[in-house]
Specification:
This protein is 32% helix and 19% strand. With 356 residues, the protein is an alpha/beta fold. A hairpin with a 2-residue loop joins β9 and β10. α6 packs parallel to α7. The radius of gyration is 21 Å and the shape is globular. The relative contact order is 0.18. GO terms for molecular function: ATP binding.
Length: 356
């Protein structure tokens, strides 16, 4: 679980609990300390044949100021849809997104103001930057959209400098094709920073970069957190990245968060069978022998009953769930949503007091 950059933790959360079940969604957006959150979040899309894709199927989430939360899981698990919904780019089918304890408003003016506070950093910097725009124009675009024309040149230079492009003026007239991949990603980050946001949503922020550059960008995100107090949700399928950058991790499977906890807790002592399988393939894995999951993740239009992971669960296949007397529950009894403030895993076997 090593990367080229180190990690600095904020204070570890010490809440304890069993399976971490949520007793019920509150009327407000989580704790008074949370900067962004979601309650009972559901996002559904129409699919061919009159079917409905349950992309996000009940998620509670809270992010504290200055915290980095990794949202991890396989492709298609719903993590990018959660990120887009947190940004207001998708409207929930049910549930609510909260910002600083207040429900997100989807009126045009309110949503525009919110997007100054919560900024997106995309996976592919080449696709995120207009090849016909200079670096200066790319970074200044947000200022112009929000009518923040005062001190534009100084704001752009400051954002580029914070993103590690110094001297900033050297890059003003450069075009994206003249920059390296790492420099383009820094321009994208500068375009977010120029608006002085409180939250960054980063969707696979280093997936398209060479290994030699990945550590630099991760170190930059950590430095911005420490210097500016920025909170961030980092969407990733890479648990090594989560290990190096995040304070907490939420592991998603088929539209639900199946395990919450600090990165150290989850990646050194994973509890949910799905998390254990993901961690098992990491170098120096604490799980031991690699676990290969059978089959493909189910389609979001055909979510299994009971525990949605049960068709691929090693604990059910091995007979461990049968021995514990929870096999029928695994196949038929839905699990409660997890509380983002308590480490836990949504698993019938764990709820019955057994180890996976």
């Amino acid at each position: 679980m090593s990367e080229t950059t180190g990690k600095r933790r904020t204070s570890e959360m010490s809440e304890t609990g069993g399976a971490g079940a949520m007793g019920g969604a509150g009327e407000t957006g989580g704790t008074s300390e949370s900067i962004i959150g979601a309650r009972d979040l559901v996002v559904r899309f129409p699919a061919p044949g009159g079917r409905t894709a349950r992309a996000v199927d009940g998620v509670h989430l809270d992010l504290a100021p200055g915290e980095i939360l990794a949202l991890a899981g396989e492709s298609g698990c719903g993590k990018t849809t959660v990120a887009r919904t947190l940004l207001g780019l998708e409207k929930p089918t049910a549930g609510q997104v909260f910002f600083q304890g207040k429900p997100l408003s989807y009126r045009g003016r309110d949503l525009k103001a919110y997007r100054r506070e919560a900024q997106l950093v995309l996976q592919d910097p080449s696709g995120a930057l207009n090849p016909r725009h200079t670096v200066y124009d790319a970074v200044a675009e947000g200022l112009r959209i929000h009518g923040m024309h005062r001190d534009e040149r100084e704001r752009v230079a400051d954002a580029l400098s914070r993103a590690g492009l110094r001297p900033a003026e050297k890059f003003f007239l450069a075009y994206p094709h003249e920059l390296s991949g790492g420099q383009r990603q820094r321009v994208v980050i500068a375009g977010a920073l120029v608006l002085d946001p409180k939250v960054i949503i980063a969707d696979e922020p280093v997936a398209s970069l060479d290994a030699s550059v990945r550590g630099e960008i991760l170190a930059l995100l950590l430095r911005l957190r420490d210097e500016l107090g920025l909170a961030a949700v980092v969407v990733t399928h890479d648990l090594g990245l989560a290990w190096n950058i995040a304070d907490r991790i939420a592991v998603m499977y088929l539209g639900r968060i199946v395990e919450y906890g600090t990165v150290d807790e989850v990646l050194t002592a994973p509890r949910h069978p799905y998390t254990r399988a993901l961690v098992s393939v990491l170098p120096d894995s604490p799980v031991g022998r690699s676990q290969v999951l059978t089959g493909e993740p189910p389609d979001a239009t055909t979510v299994p009953g009971g525990c949605r992971f049960h068709p691929r669960c090693p604990a059910l296949a091995s007979g461990a769930a049968e021995e514990a007397g929870v096999a029928d529950d695994c196949r038929s009894t839905p699990l409660p949503l997890l509380d983002p403030h308590r480490p836990g895993a949504a698993c019938h076997l764990i709820a019955a007091g057994h180890k996976v």
